[in-house]
Amino acid sequence: MIGRQRTILAIAALIIALLGVAGLVLVTQNRQARCAAVPFLTPELLPNAALLPGEQPGMPAGWSAAAPGVELQGSEGKGFDYNNDGRALQLIGIGNFVQTPPIAVRPGASYCFASRALTDSAKRSATRLRLSFDWRDGQNQPLGKNMTDWQHVVRWQPEAQPDDWSAIVGAFDAPAGAATLLVQIQPASDDRVYLDAMHVLRTSDDRPPTTNAQPLPQSVAGGRSSVVIQPWPNGYRAATSFSFDWETAMGGLIHSRSVDDPNASVDWQLRAMRMRQGVTTTLDLFRPYGIRATYYANGYNFLLGNTERRQFMNNPTFAWADHTKSKKWPNDAWTSMPWFANDPYGTVDSDPIWYFGDLIPVLLKARQDIQSHTFSHLDGGLATQQEWLADLQTWRTVASERGVPPARSLAFPWSSSAGMSYADWDALLAAGITSITRTKPGQPQYALASPADPHCRPIPGHERILACPDFYLHSQAVGAYRGGHIARADRRVGPGGELCCPTARLRRALGRAAGGDRRLAASYQPGKNQEPRTKNHAARCRTELCCCQR
Fold it and tell me: At the top level of CATH, which class does the domain 64-205 belong to?
């Protein structure tokens, strides 16, 4: 009897043990599938996961970034810290990323990366992040990349703090020949993000739903669109495109000065009249060649006047127009003055520098392209989402009144793309914008496109919008412009320091560039007394200097 009881107890203990082991296996598999550590069973594979400081100031040892804007935070009440160890990584800039130290891997094994993320966006916007798995062989040569979808990052706000940080997770199989892995954390906006509790673990086949296609080649995974671009027809090797920022006095002329403008001191009323006269001059210049230009217009360009005293956008006062935030404004006048306060409430006849509506039919008849330079000439990186929405809608309204379709392209005033929140990009996408230009130069953390790589590139997180590069074309850049027919156009410095492109000489240069072919597709624009630029493979004159009188 006693022996039988012992047998039953032993069997019961064995069953309990087996159930316990099975439960442990299930728990382990579940945690592995969620990329969560299992003590003593799933070793941490990420070097310096604790983010201990290294020799580079502000950075953890072994970690790297694409540009300034990544640094350790969390200590002494600075920033946020998820696991209370006083260390987290700050990430700022849509052109930036955080990169892990090299991680040892084995071909065919599954690996996952997990992190916690939080944003305290100054523009009160949530944002998104994406993970890129960069596989390398034993000689550190790239094998390709896997990328996750864009993942939501919760916004911290003092009046309604989130219950938890967002989990950012990705998992992929190491390809054949893989020896190391670099994981990049890429942002979809300029909203500040904090990263903490980052881990790399072996994972099971039952992993989170991340794309696990074959790694993309570097030429595709590096950010270039996988769309195949067909060669130019008829044996052409390139196309020339001209565009310009076209503004009445109510654009940037009355609202600011461009800090890199050599003619900022030139009378703004004279410059506004040059903007008006520039349309006639450019049309005369391009007509013999059948060139179609892109004119990026502000809202008052569509008006024949404003005798009815319309209050566009409720005539806002922009608190962000503060000279302490930007050198665009020499004082704080616009922080308390309504943006359209200088409207003379006249007509094209009485106040021709303020309203260009009479020129819209001229451009349309010539089959020119009219796109958006925003209605109000606002600062894109400082404006709120609501200000963006009001501006985009008002531009669409006044444009439709003059028979101009909704804009598909937008040129940022003052190249003010730095500081765009995820919600701001949402606003542009909802308005039907599919391409942007005049993006922030000089600060790589905000870079959306680079003249060093003259291709339009998708906006991270809003890939239906393309960012197209542009840059000033000056004498030092001529040698880089192959063929150089337009770049070698005779130039002289005119009165007041303006770089003048005499019309007749530029016409001859265009003729040489086109090889006599009047089908050359191009666009051209006078803008704000700045040196000529190129846009993509294009020559671009963005100043009234190229509209000098003949």
Answer: mainly beta
458 by DSSP, 3-state: which?
strand
Nearest to 145 by CA among 114, 186, 191: 186
Q: Which helix (H) or strand (E) holds 8?
A: helix 2-33
Q: Along the chain (550 residues), what's the average pLDDT of each consecutive run of 10 residues? A: 67 64 48 57 90 94 96 82 93 97 96 97 96 97 96 93 95 96 98 97 65 51 54 78 90 74 70 92 92 94 98 96 77 91 97 98 96 97 96 98 97 94 97 94 89 85 92 50 39 29 40 35 32 30 29
Task: Name the 3-class secondary structure at 388.
Answer: helix
pTM of the model: 0.80
Instruction: List the structure tokens of 467.
Output: 């960012």
From CA 56, how far away is CA 145, in angstroms rounded? 27
In this structure, which CATH number among 3.20.20, 3.40.720, 1.10.10, 3.30.300 belongs to the domain 235-547?
3.20.20
Residue 491 vs residues 486, 499, 502: alpha-carbon distances, Å? 11, 7, 7
For the chain, which residues make up each domain, given as ranges? 64-205, 235-547
Residue linked to tokens 């790694």: 215
**Contact (CB, 8 A) for 257 and 264:** yes
